[in-house]
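Lay summary. Proteins are chains of building blocks that fold into shapes, and those shapes determine what they do. In this project we predict the shape from the chain. Here is one chain we studied, written as its sequence of building blocks.
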Amino acid sequence: INNTTVVTAAHCNVDTAYFSNGESRKVSKQNGKVCFQTEGSYCDYAALTIDKINIALPPIQWQQADVNDDLWIPGVAISSLETIPKSYPTSIMAATDNQQNKSCKVVYINNNCLIHLCTVLQGFSGAPIVNMTKSKKENSVVISGIHISSEQTLSKKMCQLDTEKLLANYGVPKSKLPF
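And here is the predicted shape, written in a compact code that computers can read:
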């Protein structure tokens, strides 16, 4: 979010935040706003306070997404099934080129969930959901939520849809986040 706050999924066991300039900071779930509830008003986010990091951040806006907005989810670079790494430590995490994946879009959104079809792997939980459609209009980085899971049963538990399972990816939308 800024030089003293990081956001991730609450279910992530994160004790260190890594930054593009090579620096890292210890984080604690005791320092910040954490919501992890799997029944009722489902939520899975953690906005954690860190010691200030000296890094140039682009202008960032948080805006609610709309259905069919183009997205981008930072993560491991994937160009084919053969290039998915067997393991991918934080040191080699790069940007996933979801702009080649023309289905990297919002397909459903309500106040509890954002459903997208972007390419993701285990370990992407907590990644920002960058809204490319709105970023281009605003000439700024626009984040519309955070990716949390590909668990198919979230369609009912989180999104409150009538279907038991939906093969898709799920995120916490801006409307559910405390900032």
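What the prediction tells us: Residues 76 and 121 are 8 Å apart (CA to CA).
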